[in-house]
């Protein structure tokens, strides 16, 4: 009986260790946070560079930690994409936007919120099926909800463009996010079904020496795309962008991403005059 007892205890120990590892694994913790609806959305104001007025915000997801800190998405979004959790996060972000700002969007039809999508969100119409009843219930116009898609999301036009087209047909604006940071050539822009181009922070950081930035801007203009510059930190960057015809900007010069209550207060204060 002794060897059997030893074998059973060893087996129990292995099981316990496995369970512990599972509980501590980042994927398991993220899954737990999703199931408990713990993720939060912060809003980074986007301003009109020519008059300083707030035109809306980008929704940026945050993961509150037990110690009170907030984990930023560049740490857990890649994990979520690799482990099949990303579309559940997107759905929760969309639902949070309406819960946080639905009433506000209804009374401010000129306020726009953009939501980041992952390539996986473009494989089906699930997102559209989620958005349509939310817009109706909160009486928000589809133009008020924009979708940010990176070059990766456009990578396989056969798979994704029907979904992107349907989102646009429903009235949503589509942004190309982080354009120019991928490997595709700039002329690729003319083939993309998009309404607005977001100039990545890496270009805004190096306006003086990145020779490609004016080319991106000229191409966007010739395609009649509006532009939003991200990561604007200084007045001189804002001046340069304004001078080159970029309409909108977001960045720490104006505000970091804020929890919903603070964003609404900021919006009211900025647009009061
Ligand atoms: P992104 O879409 O390029 O978002 C802009 C990031 O730059 C945000 O980081 C924002 O907080 C940061 N930022 C904005 N202004 C400044 C500035 O003036 N200076 C500096 N240093 N940083 C600035 P965040 O919130 O950490 O988001 C990181 C990335 O995670 C985002 O990059 C986006 O790709 C992704 N992400 C965020 N939320 C979501 C989401 O709900 N779904 C998906 N799929 N991805 C998301
Ligand atoms: Ca974005
Ligand atoms: Ca971006
Ligand atoms: Ca970026």
UniProtKB/TrEMBL annotation:
Single GO MF descriptor: cyclic-guanylate-specific phosphodiesterase activity
GO-annotated cellular components: plasma membrane
Highest taxon of the lineage: Bacteria
Its EC number(s): 3.1.4.52
Transmembrane segments: 1-20
Catalytic activity: 3',3'-c-di-GMP + H2O = 5'-phosphoguanylyl(3'->5')guanosine + H(+)
Subcellular location: Cell membrane
Boundaries of every EAL domain copy: 23-271
Record keywords, A-Z: c-di-GMP, Cell membrane, Hydrolase, Membrane, Transmembrane, Transmembrane helix
Chief location bin: membrane
Membrane topology, from the record: Multi-pass membrane protein
Protein name: cyclic-guanylate-specific phosphodiesterase
Species per Swiss-Prot/TrEMBL record: Franconibacter pulveris
Shown part of the complete sequence: 234 to 506 of 509
